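Key result, reporting period 2: structure in, sequence out.
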């Protein structure tokens, strides 16, 4: 990984937008700071489109699309796509969604029976395409236990995503990268090649690996954690929301240097 200072003006100017994770990237331990919030406006002023890409419920992204200076976003690790004004698009039919939800309920019951110490995340009831256990937000689950639960769910055909705070299970074969590319195609008409070369992604955790691998301009905030199989190209000097604000300052300065 290179320091963010190594990002060139040419690469910064070529960007159309920024996709960003929420927990421990934009947010500091679940809180939105004034600096991180202001950074969103600085990025918009620099001429960039903004999209949240998170494992949090689609309802969170809907609220952001209505109140924040963002163009839309991806919730539930790629399972929920949200456009301007908070409009949600589900990629599967109503009947198929009902079938997947029933299958997911069975899996969750099996997981909770086999791993009785696990507790649902406090936003589990707001989800549509996955179910989420708290492994680091309000309680700590050892990494080896998280690996056991992940293997248990995958053995039953589930898709599993692990973030800095949550363990997600579901039956939608999606990830943050595929959801992001699909959303950008839906909203802007760009093809996958354009999406992955003209949009930057910034994140901090293992469930960001798909985006670290898919997008050309990738940035990790300084608290990058876990053992991602693919690392971002650049790293901020500051963690979490301060790192996001650092990214906004750097991009703004580099893009203005062309004027």
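The corresponding designed sequence is given below.
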């Amino acid at each position: 990984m290179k320091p963010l200072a190594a990002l060139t003006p040419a690469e910064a100017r070529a960007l159309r937008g920024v996709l960003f994770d929420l927990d421990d990237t934009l947010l500091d331990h679940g809180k939105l700071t004034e600096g991180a919030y202001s950074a969103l406006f600085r990025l918009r002023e620099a001429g960039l489109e903004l999209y949240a890409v998170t494992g949090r419920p689609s309802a969170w992204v809907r609220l952001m699309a209505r109140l924040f200076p963002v163009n839309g976003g991806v919730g539930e690790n790629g399972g929920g796509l949200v456009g301007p004004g908070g409009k949600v698009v589900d990629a599967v039919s109503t009947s198929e969604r009902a079938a997947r939800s029933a299958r997911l309920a069975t899996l969750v019951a099996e997981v909770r029976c086999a791993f009785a110490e696990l507790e649902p995340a406090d936003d589990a009831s707001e989800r549509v395409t996955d179910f989420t256990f708290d492994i680091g937000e309000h309680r700590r689950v050892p990494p080896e236990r998280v690996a056991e639960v992940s293997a248990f769910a995958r053995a039953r055909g589930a898709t599993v995503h692990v973030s800095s705070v949550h363990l997600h299970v579901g039956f939608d074969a999606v990830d943050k990268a595929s959801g992001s590319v699909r959303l950008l195609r839906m909203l802007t008409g760009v093809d996958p090649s354009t999406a992955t070369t003209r949009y930057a992604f910034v994140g901090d955790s293992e469930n960001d690996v798909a985006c670290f691998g898919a997008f050309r301009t990738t940035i990790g905030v300084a608290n990058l954690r876990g053992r991602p199989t693919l690392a971002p190209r650049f790293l901020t000097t500051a963690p979490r929301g301060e790192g996001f604000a650092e990214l906004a300052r750097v991009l703004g300065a580099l893009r203005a240097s062309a004027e």
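The longest strand covers residues 49-53. The chain has two domains: 2-88+175-256, 94-170. This case is discussed further under Risks and Mitigation.
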